[in-house]
């Protein structure tokens, strides 16, 4: 009887830890953005649009197709370069290999939870927008 209990606990325990990366880190990743700007900015990610945000801020991005994803930042008075994301391997995905959860590994691959941003902290610098004033002169 104790052998059956042991194997039952082992099987159930292994099933609990399948798809480790999906369970632990979710299907979205978090990225921190800081910068030299005091005014509110609008940030557009693959997950959602964040309006009137003061830096520093933490935003979510989708793990699907993470490599090459852009984060766009805009404000009334500054121009910003887009943040280009690169992916790396999520270390939680190796939990499936250690516990033998091939089903869980497949779930992690489908949800792309095996990927995480290679860099998750960004510092941005805005360049002032050129505001030209047009003065009209009337000749009489």
Task: Report on this structure.
It is a single chain. This protein is of the alpha+beta class and 140 residues long. It has one domain. 26% of the residues lie in helices and 31% in strands. The protein contains four helices and eleven strands. The chain has helices spanning 2-16, 20-25, 94-99, 102-111, and strands at 28-35, 41-44, 49-53, 57-62, 70-74, 78-79, 83-84, 87-89, 115-117, 121-124, 127-128. The strands form four sheets. It has a four-stranded antiparallel sheet, with no helix packed on it. A hairpin with a 4-residue loop joins strand 2 (41-44) and strand 3 (49-53). The chain is elongated and about 75 Å long. The model is unreliable at 133-140 (pLDDT under 50).
- Residue share in helices? 25-40%
Note the quaternary state here.
single chain
The fraction of residues assigned to DSSP E strands is 25-35%
Average predicted local confidence, pLDDT:
75
Q: Walk across the major sheet and give the strand order.
A: 3-2-5-7
| Secondary structure tally: strands | 11
Helix count? 4
Give Rg in angstroms: 23 Å
- From the helix content, strand content and strand pairing, which structural class follows? alpha+beta
Distance between the termini: 108 Å
Major β-sheet annotation: 4 strands, antiparallel
Helix-strand string: HHEEEEEEEEHHEEE
Cα shape = elongated
Contiguous runs where pLDDT drops below 50 for at least 5 residues: 133-140
- Supply the number of structural domains: 1
């Amino acid at each position: 009887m104790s052998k059956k209990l042991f194997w039952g606990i082992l099987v159930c325990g292994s099933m609990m830890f399948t798809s480790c990366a999906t369970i632990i880190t979710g299907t979205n990743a978090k990225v921190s953005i800081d910068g030299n700007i005091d005014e509110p900015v609008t940030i557009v990610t693959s997950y959602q649009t964040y309006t009137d945000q003061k830096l520093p801020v933490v935003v979510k991005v989708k793990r699907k197709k993470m490599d090459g994803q852009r984060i766009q930042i805009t404000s009334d008075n500054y121009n910003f370069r887009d943040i280009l994301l690169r992916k790396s391997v999520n270390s939680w995905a190796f939990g499936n290999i250690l516990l033998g959860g091939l089903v869980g590994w497949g779930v992690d691959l489908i949800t792309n939870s095996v990927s995480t941003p290679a860099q998750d902290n960004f510092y941005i610098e805005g360049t002032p927008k050129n505001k030209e004033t047009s003065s009209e002169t009337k000749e009489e």
